[in-house]
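In response to reviewer comment 3 from the previous cycle, which asked for concrete evidence that the modeling workflow produces usable outputs, we include below a single protein chain processed end to end. The sequence was submitted unchanged, and the resulting structure tokens are shown without manual editing.
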Amino acid sequence: MRIGKYRIVDKIRFSLSILMISIMMVIVFSAFSHSFTASAINKTEYIDVTVKPGDTIWKIAKEHTDEQKDIREVIYIISKINEIENSIIYSGQVLKIPNYDKKHD
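The workflow returned the following structure tokens.
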């Protein structure tokens, strides 16, 4: 068998070499993609907030966020972290809230 100007003497050895190179490429790619993913993880800290009578997610998000952040995004994050559907919260419930420093973005 010929590839370009090269002649393959042993097909099995050639196939194993291609397989080994492919496996090594997958391993290297996986290692690099994992390191990029690990470094991209958001390292947001959270605080616990106890819901008081009359509180809403909107009110809690507004109290713990500066004007630079989009309040709708913060509400989405709070709902997702706390697995809240339909924005219904209850008095006494403890919510995890992203700890956004109001002085720094």
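Helices lie at 11-40, 57-63, 71-81. We consider this sufficient to address the reviewer's concern, and the full set will be provided in the supplementary archive.
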